[in-house]
């Protein structure tokens, strides 16, 4: 099965997870990158608001032929209870009818509402949420 993992990471945790998973699943991997990395305050204030309002991030252009994959995994950090704004850049690019798996990384692991929100956002593209995981970051310090 051809698998694509597409992810965004601000502080590196989601990147680490996505890269490990891509190796394990022999998946193709695409990282969504900011045009300009937001400052910490920018991420918490502007970024969180954008996430809550489901607004897109200013990203470097990316290309993904989603239709070429049988399995698509989107990995995103949780920002203010929503997937980080880069998630909203992916949704319009998804072909309708796709089955999508979501991996959220978060500080709390408390994403019951997030799953419902993501499901709603995907259903607008007639996509189906076939897997949802919230991976709480465990500090190694
Ligand atoms: C702007 C911002 C907002 C966040 N909001 C939440 C939140 O609402 N709930 C939570 O559990 N963690 C929150 N976090 C923590 C991140 O979701 C968590 O550390 C995540 O694993 C970071 O992934 P990354 O290193 O790939 O960016 C937030 C982090 C940032 C930077």
TrEMBL record:
InterPro entries: Flavodoxin_CS, Flavoprotein-like_sf. This is Flavodoxin-like domain-containing protein. It comes from Aequitasia blattaphilus.
């Amino acid at each position: 099965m051809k698998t694509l993992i597409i992810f965004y990471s601000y502080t590196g945790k989601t990147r680490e997870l996505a890269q490990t998973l891509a190796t394990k699943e022999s998946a193709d991997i695409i990282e969504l990158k900011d045009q300009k990395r937001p400052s910490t305050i920018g991420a918490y204030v502007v970024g969180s608001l954008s996430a809550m309002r489901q607004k897109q991030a200013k990203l470097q252009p990316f290309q993904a032929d989603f239709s070429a994959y049988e399995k698509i995994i989107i990995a995103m950090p949780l920002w203010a209870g929503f997937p980080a704004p880069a998630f909203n850049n992916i949704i319009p690019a998804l072909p309708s009818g796709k089955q999508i798996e979501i991996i959220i990384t978060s500080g709390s692991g408390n994403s019951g509402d997030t799953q419902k929100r993501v499901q709603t956002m995907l259903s607008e593209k007639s996509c189906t949420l076939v897997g949802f995981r919230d991976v709480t970051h465990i500090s190694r310090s």
